Amino acid sequence: MANDPIEQFHIEPIAALEIAGLDASFTNASLAMVGGAALAAWFFNWAMKPAAMAPGRAQVAAEGAYDFVHGMLHDAAGAEGVKKFLPFVFTLFLFIFMSNMLGMFPGFLGVHHIFTPTSQIVVTAALALMVFFTVIVVGFAKNGLKFFKLFAPSGVPIVILPFVVLIEVISFFSRPLSHAVRLWANILAGHILLKVFAGFVPALIAAGGFYGVLSVLPLAMTVGLYGLEFLVAFLQAYVFAILTCIYLNDALHPGH
Amino acid sequence: MADEKPPEDALSDLRRRVSAARGDGASNTPPPQSPASLAMRFGGEFGAAIIVGALLGYGVDHFVHTSPWGLVAGLGLGFAAGVVNVVRVAQFYSRSHPVEPDTPSAVDDEED
Question: Is A14 helix (H, G, I), strand (E, B) or coil?
């Protein structure tokens, strides 16, 4: 059904594969993820190939992206954070950004619809949990038991300390949830909204007569929303990356 | 060529002029956030803490057989953790978006 707003999120296997009884097929979602990663790798290879002293447009874009993430990480986690985590944060940012951007295109080269991997909570949850476990592993490896200071802010009276620790623990465990849900919900809601408004256009035209003239309104709305979605695609990648920087800073400096 | 300087000098001169034009600090201002995405951020932080708190309480109930008190306490603590989360987000937001000093203060229209 072409008018179904959630049809775009259906996962269809491209090459069936089963490993130890588990379905590990290569699906359209896998293809979109490989596409996003490959697009990022190809763009940076192509843009940085001249490595010119006076950069061209593509090189400015590539160096600008690097500077952007570098500055973001430096502001949140200092020089030590940059040294340890720049590749991780830069990769996360580029992968999410490219996946979001790729998902903005309705399809070409015979592909019926390009899947948006970040509209599946499995993908965003995997990314958020990766950050979460990185924080825990690096935190304990670097600080040892001092990492628990993260849960006990200094200057709290001993009477209410148990409550504060409990609240801090819950707050800590709620991070991957809100981290994953924010990216997923933004992308999912945006894509559904686009499809719903776009679906009004053929419905109104099919109704005929005066209603056909009215179809200009949802069409204009779809165009406006499309622009907004490009902003959201960048903004959510940015928000995901900057929260990653803030969480990684906790792993390096657990004391508040 | 009219420019007699060796290339190294020209380059460092260019670098000096570029950094002077940029001003101090990185040109790394965060993009403007729409109010809706900010609202979603606050709501998400708040809701996530409550869900996690309730789940932890439920887990305690399951293993220690104290139903329903673990869930009740978990919900309450999750609520508190949600407030803490929201305050942290708000602090982070106001630190990255400082109010300009000459902004007029809001008029107090309460009759007291």
Answer: strand
ipTM: 0.70
pLDDT in tens, A17-29: 878 777 788 888 8
Whether the predicted pLDDT of A94 surpasses 90: yes
Neighbours of B76 (CB within 10 A): 17
Residue A119, class by beta-carbon neighbours within 10 Å (0-12 exposed, 13-18 middle, 19+ buried)?
A: buried
Residue B29 touches partner A, C-beta closer than 8 Å:
no
Other C-beta atoms closer than 10 Å to the C-beta of A96 total 27
Mind giving me the DSSP string for A161-225? HHHHHHHHHHHHHHHHHHHHHHHHHHHHHHHHHHHHHHHHHHHHHHH-THHHHHTHHHHHHHHHH
- Between the two ends of chain B, the Cα-to-Cα distance in Å is 77
pLDDT digits (tens, 9 = 90+) for B10-30: 777 777 777 677 655 444 556
The shortest C-alpha distance from B108 to chain A (Å) reads 35
Angle made by CA atoms B77, B82, B87, in degrees to the nearest 5: 130
With CB atoms and an 8 Å threshold, state whether A181 touches B85: no
